[in-house]
Design brief:
The longest helix has 8 residues. This protein is α+β, with helices and mostly antiparallel strands. It has four helices and three strands; from the N terminus they run βααββαα. β2 and β3 form a beta hairpin.
């Protein structure tokens, strides 16, 4: 478990994310823990959740699907 201050976190978020891939990162404000940063895999293990269809659809590089033209989504004009 890594503990960093909020100032250090704000100055180098990328470093905190790199550490969080390996272990949770506790962010403190004035010496008191306020947040925990962890990888999504660690969160899923902890919560018992698996990937959902939304997670899979949000994946970068996922094939884009063409939707119907927007005019088909419009509400009909009131009469």
């Amino acid at each position: 478990m890594k503990v960093i201050g909020s100032r250090e976190f704000n100055q180098d978020v990328s470093a905190a994310k790199r550490i969080a891939r390996l272990e949770p990162v506790f962010v403190t404000d004035r010496g008191k823990p306020t947040h925990v940063l962890m990888s999504i895999d660690a969160f899923r293990r902890m919560s018992g959740r698996r990937e959902s269809i939304l997670d899979l659809l949000a994946m970068p590089g996922a094939r884009e699907t063409e939707l119907a033209p927007p005019e088909r989504w419009d509400r009909p004009e009131p009469r």
